[in-house]
Amino acid sequence: MSTGSVEVVYRGIFQKSLAKNICRGIVFAAKKEGKIGIAFGRYSDSPERNGIPAKQFAVVADSEEEMEENLSRYEPDNNDVTIAADDTLCKGVESWAWYGLQPINKLLKEGGTLLVPSTRSSESLIGDIHRKGKPYNLAIVKAAASFSGLWVYKDDHTDVRLLGALAKVAPHIVSLESVVAAINEPKKNAAKEASARKAYALVASTAIGADNGNATVPYKFDLPGWKTMEEGLVIRGMTGEQKVPGRDGGYVPARNPTFKKFSTRTMRPVVNFDTCTECKICWLQCPDTCFDITPDGHYDANMEACCGCGVCEAVCPVDKCITMVNEEAFKDNGSQWEMWTKDKKSYAAWLSEKISEPPPRSHGFHHVGQYAGEIANESS
Ligand code: SF4
Ligand code: SF4
């Protein structure tokens, strides 16, 4: 039996076309083998706000009966392969307020494969991925994050590379030759075919044990059952001001307690409090009201609320006072201001390490540039 399903987790808007291309490619390739295939979004995570994790699925079956059996589930929860289209999704997925934080491997079946385009090693990535409690495989296609915008698509071959890699890790779903045949229809595309074949040859898979990975328990909350739901559409207003916990003075804006938004982020701002002039501009301009006012008058970007848009970096009038840093450099959402208050010298060292070490990346909002060089680098 060659029935199987693939979950594609992607960043809303920035990777919507990429996810669609991957799922459509799976269906077209499966059809080349005489199978039935269908691709669909997950009851729409729309509006797919910039960067918010969203999902599409592709299901492949030998017969209509098998397909019906697969589709009888609301959401495929036993996927052969989960593709995380951006490696920072490995920290977990919070799609609006449906679940709390869902581990990226949650809907992956035992023995399945989590496939990630990344320049990181499996040892590094597994530090971010929550423990599954069942063995599975982590496969990496060497590639930088592929982001584009609402009306443009960055055709950098990430889609065909992932399809080529999929053929390697789950040949019962699609073979390399059927992927190649789908790529070359209606018109031959030798460069894309070469990218798919290279990814097939180079994808590296590592067995992950049941207890390997990030031991942190992802935050969750109780969903209302059908008996506990209130009548009508209820959107609670936020309650009034909160003081900075445990301190005299300061101000923490009230925030939605269930939708924390941090899994939207691919980069985070780091603040140099030593050079901050307390001008308030970041606080005023942050579209997500992320800045807490500290008792000493500084502005502390709350890392549970920040979606990583980069506006604060752009508007801060002090050179290098706010710097957007690759999210892979961080393991928690702790307060930077608290760290700075405790030990200013250590904070300065931490700040300089964070700014200089991690590989640069785009947070999607500012993606510009050419990518011919990227195709050559990542296909080798
Ligand atoms: S990156 Fe800056 S402006 Fe954007 S949400 Fe985070 S704190 Fe606010
Ligand atoms: S915009 Fe820059 S200088 Fe002004 S308060 Fe924010 S961090 Fe400080």
CATH class of the largest domain: Alpha Beta
Q: From the 3D coordinates, which CATH architecture of the largest domain would you assign?
A: 3-Layer(aba) Sandwich
Number of strands: 11
Ligand inventory:
iron/sulfur cluster
The CATH fourth-level homologous superfamily of the largest domain: Pyruvate-ferredoxin oxidoreductase, PFOR, domain III
Average pLDDT, to the nearest integer?
88
Strand order of the largest sheet: 2-3-1-4-5-6-7
The percentage helix is 25-40%
CATH topology of the largest domain: Pyruvate-ferredoxin Oxidoreductase, domain 3
Largest β-sheet summary: 7 strands, mixed
Q: How many individual helices?
A: 11
Low-confidence stretches: none
Radius of gyration: 22 Å
Beta-strand content bin: 15-25%
Instruction: Estimate nothing, just give the exact number of structural domains.
Output: 2
> Element order, helices and strands?
EHEEHEEHEHHHEEHEEHEHHH
The N- to C-terminal Cα distance equals: 34 Å
The helix-and-strand class reads alpha/beta
Shape, per Cα inertia axes: globular
Description of the molecule:
With 380 residues, the chain is an alpha/beta fold. It has two domains: 4-221, 3-Layer(aba) Sandwich (Pyruvate-ferredoxin Oxidoreductase, domain 3); 228-257 and 267-360, Alpha-Beta Plaits (2-Layer Sandwich), CATH 3.30.70. The chain has eleven helices and eleven strands. Strand 9 (291-293) and strand 10 form a beta hairpin. Helix 4 (158-169) runs antiparallel to helix 5 (176-183) and helix 5 (176-183) runs antiparallel to helix 6 (190-202). The mean pLDDT is 88. The structure holds iron/sulfur cluster (SF4) (2 copies). One iron/sulfur cluster is lined by residues 271, 276-282, 299, 316, 318, 321-322.
